[in-house]
Amino acid sequence: MLIERLTEALGADAVKTSPEDLACYSFDAYSQGVLPSAVVLPTSAAQVSAVVKIARELEEPLIARGSGTGLCGGATPIRAGIVLSFARMNQLLELDIENRRVRVAPGLVNLQLSERIASTGYFYAPDPASQRASTIGGNIGTNAGGPHCLAYGTTVNHVLALEIVDDRGECFTTGVEDLGYDLTALLVGSEGTLGIVTSAWVRLLRIPPATGVWLAAFPSIESASEAVSAIVGAGIVPTALEMMDATIVRAVESAYAAGYPEDAAAVLLVESSGEPEEVASADAAIARIARAHGATKWQAAKSAEQRDALWRGRKGAAGAVGRIAPNYYTQDVCVPRTRLPEMLAAVDEAARKHEIVVGNVFHAGDGNLHPLLLYDKRDARQVAAVIEIGNVVLARAVELGGTISGEHGVGIEKRGGMSMVYRTEDLAAMACVRDVFDPHALLNPEKIFPAGISCREMRT
Ligand SMILES: Cc1cc2nc3c(=O)[nH]c(=O)nc-3n(C[C@H](O)[C@H](O)[C@H](O)COP(=O)(O)OP(=O)(O)OC[C@H]3O[C@@H](n4cnc5c(N)ncnc54)[C@H](O)[C@@H]3O)c2cc1C
Fold this sequence. Notes:
The chain has about 450 residues and is of the alpha+beta class. The protein has helices at about 1-10, 20-25, 45-60, 110-115, 135-140, 150, 185, 220-235, 245-255, 275-290, 305-315, 315-320, 340-355, 380-400, 420, 425-435, 455-460; strands at about 15, 40, 60-65, 80-85, 90-95, 100-105, 120-125, 160-165, 170-175, 195-205, 205, 210-220, 240-245, 265-275, 295-300, 325-330, 335, 355-360, 370, 370-375.
């Protein structure tokens, strides 16, 4: 019945049901869930609306999916349902340079957006390290961050308006200029649980006239962390301030020969943009602070090629660790910048205790850590150890005044952990918001909230 109805609405070519196809959509970069009942590839908001109406009638869950690069199980079906893949809704729809904005379909890959508009002198700022693969719809779903979000803000700061299909299959639009509640901001980061994004107007920024990229080598991860606090504490906001430890630097160098010093215990990758004089003054000021905190090297990228190579190494770090272990598990926590040394020490201690190799590559300027726990999933001891270390990392981040996710979202992975940062009443209040948008829990059910949390607790 379901397959016939979907085929009737979208055409046979847009409905996938073979076991091989379903298997491809049963996981994301975090986990494997169950097989969906069907995968659909709509080409318009009207088709999305038709699918939602069928799902509602037949009580099938709906899971919106971009590229499946999510690291928390957000796009993974956990009780069958229909996966809505936006692979065919990937167009740049309208370019409005006068108003510095562009309208895109949700399946457009992040990097392709900036590449396609580069000749206009503008760019789209949020740049998750996954930007070669992840989509604008997925970035909106998770409120993605990225190295340059230190200066420019995360996805929510760049979404101007949304076209949404709601749980009844009705299409509506929101905009940041609307009076009353800011529904646009509410929908960004809602992980496909409040509505399905079918197009978005996003902000464009002018490509800065000058950009400098430097690397600083440090004798310890503590001295690099202290330099990060001192740079931001001095009122300097570089466009990016990223850290990699020795494990990551060696893996990156072996994979890409990007130009990082392999003898450093930690490396900062620093970028500053603006007028040439501003970049020159950032160079002098940041170099002074880095040296005062023990930097043994401060080196500028001398050409666009060198700059690109350093960034390619940083953004390819997760792939490079495949040279060390067959599997990795990325944690994502945030702490106040001044607590970075304590947080990194806790990661190191837990990893040593459980004999797991860890590599740290992260958005240091934002205090957003990503310990990559390197393991072999065929070894049950290592799997258990990685899960245990992940829990220790979450608990320590909360103790240090931080939180359990900086940018990857909650999905399935961290729904239990939400109780570490919110009281039951707070979670129930959020569940009430969800109920307003999706009272029948059709949209990406069983994500974000711990089991057993519902709006009813607010009403009693
Ligand atoms: C190597 C690597 C590096 C990464 N680096 C970063 C980083 O620097 N910063 C960062 O923030 N993340 C990073 N991530 C995580 C991931 O890439 C982001 O979460 C990204 O935003 C997911 O995009 P996607 O298109 O793959 O979405 P998916 O994984 O397919 O979906 C993500 C969520 O969005 C929802 N969704 C998708 N499309 C829609 C839609 N049209 N309407 C409503 N909801 C929708 C899904 O239901 C799901 O909940 C990284 C991942 C990897 C593997």
